[in-house]
Design goal:
The complex is a heterodimer. By secondary structure, chain A is mainly alpha-helical. Chain A is built from 13 helices and no strands. Classes of the chains: A mainly alpha, B mainly alpha. At the A-B interface, helix 1, helix 3, helix 4, helix 5 and helix 7 of A face helix 2, helix 3, helix 4, helix 5 and helix 6 of B.
Chain lengths: ~300, ~325
């Protein structure tokens, strides 16, 4: 009897230690970020956010926002439409395979997504290049060079499955009764869908915020698409989309193992800024989501 | 238009056809993406398959020669083994930590507020960009592991760890970092199953007079397939991670049994070598062969994991 009690206590102790070890890295990382990154931000002030590398992250921050927002603009309509398809036509012949494909897209290593866009736009495969040429697209699209658009496309491809899954879950949370009532009153499917989307608006906005955070934090898909460049501020978003640009994540990757202390310091400052952006988005989304659950 | 209705297996009024058609178009486009992925990768990998055959996956050689394509030799063995090695270490680290985290939030923490706080922390861990993990890994974790884990182990048992850990960036460091990074993901998968353990089983176990730890062992046995599935999915994640691993794995073509040596993973190889691959005739192709292998590993591991998970869930609902 006593031996069992002791064993029980020991097990509880192990659980506490294990869980502590699981969460400890978060505090270690946040501690390093605040200590190292905070020092850089204090030293260089707000100019750190606007000035060019190696002392600031202005152009990189600009690139991150331009690419993440463009990726949202591309992926949102596609993701919502795919989610609506799964919601409207659960019995269709395509739905089961579409589900599997979306799941597989989530799991594809992001570096491969970057290479895929590289083959589509940065250095298109010969047949694609001929196609672009025949359609005159090579005069509009930034073909054959690194560009913000290529980076945004890679990010869009990465957040697309997340948006689809999240949006479908949100739409499903609206009681089906509303949809049936609308259809019974003679509304078309699109009218009913619009109504349901309005009811689920908060959840859909949440999907948007989380997708933005994900897009802003990604690095690997930008390696061979955006091309980098942290010292020159693009004059406008269109220029950024058609020319090589940097991103905060890319800057950290480049500067993390540089031998110069200034650049490593810049990397830490950049990491603090990037963490604040993504954490703020995710924690805000969490707060909203809880009210969401209360409503439905 | 009877075709559209048959394909969607539903009835449409004339005014809904355009809407249905546009949704179908997007769905088809998304579905086509995966096929396009595989095709483009295979097209790019083909030259190296012609040159090296499947040997590109077997040899450990990386000889890049400019202006002399015949002398170029590429074999990905070191990167493939490194990928598996790192992912296995990651799983060994993350499964116990994730189990402890799940048990803490479901069984041990009293009150909703504490549980909420811990789950918010785990969400924050999941939200941290991977490059931030990478920066911390190379600046803090790597020296820490070298000085307090690898060096002591080398000094105490040199027969077991014959390699002197000359640097902190090793296969081991990458594995530990990936283990830490995959905790939120693995824990979420396990937790979802753990809270599905039926009330009848819980009550039956406690009615038999089991202590908490004994009961937990029964519950964990109940969700064992899910834990295995979570390990597989975590393995897939760790195998595909790029920048964080590239910073801490050491980036060296070396096959060694000892985890305390620098190595390579496929993703890290692509990240570090692709930039100058255009200088050589076959290197780009070899890297795409690596990408194809990564795709195959990922799809195989994930399909197995998801199948295992779904079978368990449908069995649960069946009861």
């Amino acid at each position: 009897m006593d031996a069992r009690r002791v064993k029980d206590r020991l097990f509880a102790l192990l659980v506490y230690i294990g869980a502590g070890l699981a969460i400890a890295p978060l505090f270690a990382i946040l501690g390093s970020l605040v200590a190292e990154g905070g020092r850089v931000l204090l030293e260089r002030g707000l100019a750190f956010l606007t000035s060019p590398a190696p002392y600031g992250i202005g152009p990189a921050l600009y690139g991150t926002f331009v690419m993440a927002l463009t990726a949202l603009a591309i992926a949102l309509p596609l993701g919502f439409a795919a989610a609506l398809f799964l919601y409207e036509f659960p019995g269709s012949k395509i739905s089961p395979s579409l589900r599997i494909i979306i799941q597989s897209l989530v799991e594809i290593p992001t570096i491969l997504t970057g290479l895929f866009i590289y083959l589509l736009l940065v250095a298109p495969l010969p047949p694609l290049l001929h196609l672009y040429h025949a359609l005159g697209l090579d005069r509009i699209l930034p073909v054959n060079r690194y560009s913000g658009l290529a980076g945004a496309l890679a990010l869009a491809l990465i957040i697309l499955p997340y948006i689809t899954v999240h949006a479908e879950n949100v739409i499903r949370q609206v009681p089906g009764l509303y949809r049936e009532a609308a259809l019974a009153l003679g509304a078309t499917r699109q009218r009913a869908a619009l109504m349901i989307a309005r009811m689920a608006l908060r959840g859909l906005l949440l999907a948007l915020v989380l997708a933005f955070a994900k897009a802003a934090g990604e690095t690997a898909p930008l390696l061979f698409t955006a091309g980098g460049g942290f010292a020159y501020m693009p004059p406008n978003p269109l220029y950024a989309l058609t020319h090589p640009i940097g991103a905060v994540s890319l800057l950290i990757y480049d500067y993390a193992i540089m031998p110069t202390p200034t650049r490593i310091a810049t990397a830490w400052g950049a990491a603090l800024v990037l963490t604040l952006i993504t954490l703020a988005a995710v924690l805000a989304a969490r707060a909203v989501a809880h009210r969401e659950i209360v409503i439905y | 238009m009877g075709l559209l209705e048959a394909l969607l297996n539903t009835r449409l009024s004339p005014r809904e056809r355009l809407y249905a058609l546009s949704l179908l178009a997007v769905a088809t486009l998304v579905a086509a993406l995966l096929a396009a992925f595989a095709v483009t990768f295979f097209v790019k990998a083909e030259p190296i398959f012609r040159k090296e055959g499947l040997g590109v996956y077997i040899w450990n050689v990386w000889r890049a020669v400019e202006n002399n394509p015949e002398a170029e030799r590429y074999g990905l063995a070191a990167a493939i083994l490194g990928t598996v090695y790192v992912a296995v270490i990651a799983i060994i680290v993350s499964i116990p930590l994730s189990l402890a985290l799940v048990l803490l939030t479901t069984e041990y923490l009293p009150g909703r507020h504490l549980q909420e706080a811990v789950s918010a922390l785990v969400d924050a861990m999941a939200a941290l960009p991977t490059i931030v993990y990478g920066l911390w890994g190379v600046a803090v974790l790597a020296p820490l592991l070298r000085n307090f884990v690898m060096l002591p182990l080398y000094h105490c048992c040199p027969w077991l760890f014959p390699e002197y850990p000359s640097t902190g960036t090793t296969i081991f460091t990458a594995g530990v970092l990936m283990g830490i990074m995959s905790v939120p993901y693995v824990a979420a998968l396990i937790r979802e199953a753990y809270i599905m353990v039926p009330r009848s089983i819980r009550e039956a176990v406690y009615a038999l007079g089991a202590t908490k730890s004994e009961a937990i062992r029964v519950f964990l046995g109940y969700i064992k397939p899910v834990v295995i599935a979570a390990a597989l999915l975590g393995f897939g994640r760790a195998a595909g991670e790029t920048v964080a691993v590239a910073l801490v794995v050491g980036d060296t073509f070396r096959i060694s049994l000892s985890p305390f040596t620098p190595g390579y993973t496929i993703a890290a190889l692509i990240a570090t070598q692709y930039g100058n691959a255009f200088l050589y005739r076959y290197m780009e192709s070899a890297l795409f062969a690596g990408g194809l292998m990564l795709l195959i590993i990922g799809v195989a591991v994930n399909t197995a994991g998801i199948a295992l998970m779904n079978r368990w869930i449908s069995r649960m609902h069946g009861r």
